[in-house]
Design a protein that fits this description.
CATH class of chain A: Mainly Beta
Distance between the termini of chain A: 15 Å
Largest interface: A-B, 41 and 41 residues
Radius of gyration of chain A: 16 Å
Strand content of chain A: over 45%
Order of helices and strands of chain A: EHEEEEEEEEEEEEEEEH
Structural class of chain A: mainly beta
CATH superfamily of chain A: Ureidoglycolate hydrolase
Number of helices of chain A: 2
CATH architecture of chain A: Sandwich
Helix content of chain A: under 10%
Oligomer: homodimer
Largest sheet of chain A: 5 strands, mixed
Chain lengths: 164, 164
């Protein structure tokens, strides 16, 4: 099942970045509205840096099969969509180092996510077209990437029905 | 004078975020291109956090007068434009705690900046229309904002000729 991305449903996995419901502050002599702290990016380890990158993702092909999940033990990772279209987010709880059944969320083009450190997630799932995302994550020493493939990929056939 | 925003010209003040010239990495089984580390966000102080916010800026009015500059001693601040249009960046060198003559750069809608900590800069200068920016900066204890007004505002009349 694909669910709409909401803060409440996504809480076990991280934060939803969206201006709806955000704390606002009027700054710069009234010329700017700050939607404050949509998410905090949590970086661990000595000599680690927080960096801003841009990811350009190919759109998924249907039927979609979720095969590989990854996680970042040493830092959270925030994504903000730049191309305006809807996108999918697949996350999973951890079971003794193994990702459980993926949970799939549908985000608007004005919603980002920030994965809590060590949360299993699928690589970017752009829909329809090549899509850019601004990404805030960690650079530094230490192993900050674990990847694991499901024994049997999860088919997400319902996507095409739900979205098209 | 307004100059186009380039990494070389902006180096004394911070980093230019742009995919041109960035290190690229193919990730996620070939489905994603990472333009790696467009900028590093440098956060200081105990119990400080790196946060992602969204700023919604009113467009400037012409003739433009630059009156107030600000700086953030405890952290860099990165801006990425979300609305696609050109925008202006005004920065200044420091002279014993006082900002010098502003230097003005024109950025495309696909260029961001990351101000080095303690670099004097003008609040957001959107052109033409209300514009959104994704912002990565610091939250935490301590005084991280200094504001200072010029005795006489700097008129930037050339803007309208240069851009329109």
């Amino acid at each position: 099942m694909i669910r709409p991305l909401t803060k409440a449903a996504f809480r076990p996995f991280g934060e939803v970045l969206e201006i709806e419901g955000a704390e606002t502050r009027i700054i710069n002599s009234g010329t700017c509205k700050r939607f404050h702290s949509l998410a905090a990016v949590d970086i661990h380890g000595e000599n680690a840096k927080t960096i801003v990158s841009l990811f350009r993702a190919e759109p998924v092909r249907f039927p979609l099969h979720l095969l590989m999940m990854e996680r970042h033990p040493l830092g959270s990772q925030a994504f903000w969509p730049l191309s305006g279209g809807e996108w999918l987010i697949a996350v999973a709880s951890d079971h003794d180092g193994i990702p459980g059944t993926p949970q799939v969320f549908r985000a608007t083009g004005r919603q980002g996510v920030c994965y809590t450190p060590n949360v299993w997630h699928h690589p970017l799932l752009a829909l329809d077209a090549v899509a850019d995302f601004l990404v805030v994550d960690r650079e530094g020493p230490g192993k900050n990437l674990e990847e694991l493939s499901y024994r049997t990929p999860y088919a997400v056939q319902v996507i095409s029905e739900a979205l098209r």
